[in-house]
Amino acid sequence: MSEQSPALELRRINKSFGPVHANKNISLSVDRGSIHGIVGENGAGKSTLMSIVYGFYQADSGDIYVNGQICPIENPQSSIEAGIGMVHQHFMLVDTFTVLENIILGVENGYRLAGGLASARKELVRLEQEYALEVNVDAIVGDLPVGLRQRVEILKALYRGAEILILDEPTGVLTPQEADHLFRILDTLRDQGKTVILITHKLREIMAITDSVSVMRRGEMVAHVKTSETSQPALAELMVGRSVLLQVEKKLANPKDTLVSIRNLNYEDTDGVPRLKDINLDLKAGEILGIAGVSGNGQSELLEVLGGILTPKSGSIRFEGQELVDSKAFTARNLRKIGFGHVPEDRQRSGLVLSFSANECTILGYHDEPEYNRGLCLDRKAMVETCRNYIKKYDVRPPDPYLKVSGFSGGNQQKLVLAREMEQNPDVLLVGQPTRGVDIGAIEFIHKQLIMMRDAGKAILVVSVEIDEVMSLADRIAVMFDGGIVGELSAAEATETKLGLMMAGVKDAQSETKAAI
Amino acid sequence: MAEEQVKFGATLKIPGWVSYALIPFVNLLAALLISGIVILIIGDNPLEALKVLIYGAFGYPEAIGYTLYYTTNFIFTGLAVAIAFHCGLFNIGAEGQAALGGIGVSLVCLYFDNLPIWIIIPLAMIAAAIFGAAWAYIPAYLQAKRGSHIVITTIMFNFIAASILTYLLVDILIDPNGQSPESRPFIETTWLPYFHDFIAMPNTPLNISFIYALVLSAGFYFLVWHTRWGYEIRVVGQNEAAARYSGISPSKNIIIAMMISGGLAGFVGINELQGVQHRLILDFTGGYGFVGIAVALMGRNHPIGIFLAALLFGALYQGGSELAFEMRSINKEMVIVIQGLIILFSGALEHMFRPKIEAAYRRFARVQTMGAS
Question: Chain A within 8 Å of B242 (Cβ-Cβ)?
Fold first, then answer.
């Protein structure tokens, strides 16, 4: 084993799922003691590749070298033995166990827990100190915030002797501050000689933390570059295969009348837990209001209340001066009729029926409109015709109105939902996570459509956990924390730091800056 | 181009004839094969048995009449189970709903028998549908509003229905001139016309309720795939969150679908009582409600599939009794074994051969397209 040999090396890895060639001749070399980023659009093959390294899948051909030695990885067990640890996007933790119990899960050392727990505790204290990873090992995991849970995952990997740490989309659930803290931890790990592989689609993070970066596109490795020698636009172009606009081009908003005014809105879930607390918001014609916040702070409930799916506990929602709460109009169906469009946060869970054909999903929510009915029967011809138009206008691929919705990619599914809700020409458009899981190319298109709607004088509410997206789309930004609105900023005053602090529930962040102005 | 084809090969469509004809046929063949082995073990000739079975079901006009009479019941219960399936519900209660439907039919035929037949006929239909639907309404309401699982409640309601039927026949509706628990005979003016009343064929129980079954199958097709009500039912069945999002009420559609289901099951009472028995008797539902589950599964909840599956089970009932009669070593229980094997292979093990057959088809199709290009 020479000093120069890379920590991890992949040579000509191939993997097919049936006829789909998910990884084509992938070669990759990751230096020891470095942070290496892997970027690519959804479906580019990043996850497949890392699943091969971690032993979830077996490559059809190709070799994996660890520290210069060929290392056949047959299952996660052999991967752990080779010193590879993985932090999954969705944590693999038992919520009702303590941190310590979670960490020794599977490596208990013998029948009696006590001995294993004691030695693990000692080892953990050492690890925490060495890598500045403070966690209370006796805390119940379910009580910890996500940022700490992620730390538990990292500790778990280190406890198992990981020298190479793979992190899959680690910042998806973190506030910017928590993400920064994670990056400091990764820095420390690198300084201690560990190797980190970071899988992400956020180019900003790649630029901020990595030493080198590999770009994947359609199952192939298209570039290996030093981070210092590249830029965000260059990486985006490599990912998509053409140049893309990262910044949304838009004119200054020209807000007019308030269309929807929300006052003191409260909502409790079925367990009686308050999810929305005294929400006050105004949606104005010709303006995009962005809602920022870490997911799970009431944004979903706000959208669903405004969409007529959930019934608020108290408060008022007025549309063009008319009270909606407790009125006949306050159902999902009637709200559509009076001019609300709703693109749900999770298209697969609620926006589409995956087993239906595209044209059947075209009428979801509008299926009793006269244009889709002829007498007692649904007008199948009109459905297909409308769907064909949407497909053409929104460039949905493949252009087949009879294809099952599950046969479309995430981005194309999202376009189907957007087309359905936008083409009804609503006065108020509620949009949840407009570009979640959508390719960069399609993001550009979706943003343009939203700006067009705004310029046509519609009131638009955009909820997104992507802080970049909120900042670039919205004209006004409200930040939610723990069910309440922490504050409202105009797009011009918003900075990432300010929003980040507000997302963590710090109310002063805004007033301080206001005072400064 | 070739690469594109390979790339999108995963979504290569499996044509209808593979999923709706070839795969059920293979399943049926496998069931018959195992049945044949069993028959061989007990010392009879399986080919001979198959011949008797087919001849007994389709070999002569009388056999066909009987087969179609059984088929009628299976169509009703198959459609009943299928409409509930489309709403994501497993209706195990068709048996009880059929029993209640039969009570409704009997009440019409016993107490309105002074009316002319052209009023009796629609009245009996309405009674069958309403009684069956009402019986299904209770579990549906409990599922929709209280979250009681429909599988459990409908099973329990089968027992309650059977008890109600017994109680009525022992204490209320019993023929005062008779000893056994059955009602007095319906008078002849209330009977449903037989097929042999119209066309030249031997006397069989086949009556015009077979036509009802065909009309209801067509209605089922239009309701499910060509109306907004069927659309709503399917949305609720496939994705309840999407239903709520789009303003479709899951609880309303659960209740509607179950009531349609119960109403369809109730039609068994028309065929059995108004059509054949001409009195209310115990156990006239004869397990049709349960076999309806297999019929719906095998027919993939589509009326054409349900018709074919119902015909298969009708043939098994009729040909099976012929088999038990004709062959020495094969008794009634043996016929039930064969039916059970068919239900097992086409219902429970429906997907056993599917992946292999689909993969084989894909390979075949790819060779074809590559050869062509």
Answer: yes
Question: What residue of A is the nearest CA neighbor of B7?
Answer: A20
Which ipTM was obtained for this model? Answer: 0.81
Residue of B nearest to A362 (CA): B246
Average pLDDT over residues A63-91: 87
Task: Give Cα separations from A10 to A13, A25, A59, A98, A460 (angstroms).
Answer: 7, 10, 11, 37, 47
Find all residues with CB under 8 Å of A328, minimum gap 6, and list them.
A334
The domains of chain A are located at 8-240, 258-351+426-516
pLDDT at residue A143, rounded to an integer: 85
Contact assessment for residue A201 and residue A169, using Cβ atoms and an 8 Å cutoff: yes
Encode pLDDT of A40-57 as tens digits.
876 678 888 888 998 888
Of 3.40.50.300, 3.40.50.720, 3.90.1570.10, 3.40.50.1370, the CATH number of A8-240 is 3.40.50.300
Domain-located, residue B288: yes
Identify the pLDDT of residue A301.
Answer: 92
Residues 6+ apart with CB under 8 A from B135: B93, B96, B97, B100, B101, B157, B161, B262, B266
Identical fold at A8-240 and A258-351+426-516? yes
Say whether A376 and B247 touch across the interface (CB within 8 A): no
Considering only CB atoms, which chain A residues are within 8 Å of B241? 349-350
- Taking contacts as CB-CB distances below 8 angstroms, the residues of chain B near A309 are 244-245
Residue A248's pLDDT band, with cuts at 50, 70 and 90, is: confident
Residue of chain A whose alpha carbon sits nearest to that of B243:
A350
Checking if the pLDDT of A178 tops 50, the result is: yes
> Does residue B312 fall inside a structural domain?
no
Domain count along chain B: 1
Q: Which residue has the higher pLDDT, B254 or B326?
A: B254
The domain made up of A258-351+426-516 has a fold known as Rossmann fold (3.40.50)
Domain assignment present for residue B325? The answer is: no
- Chain B CB contacts of A353 under 8 Å are 234-235, 238-239, 242
Residue B171 lies in a domain: yes
Enumerate residues 6+ apart whose C-beta is below 8 A from B322: B52, B53, B55, B56, B57, B63
* pLDDT at B91 exceeding the cut of 60: yes
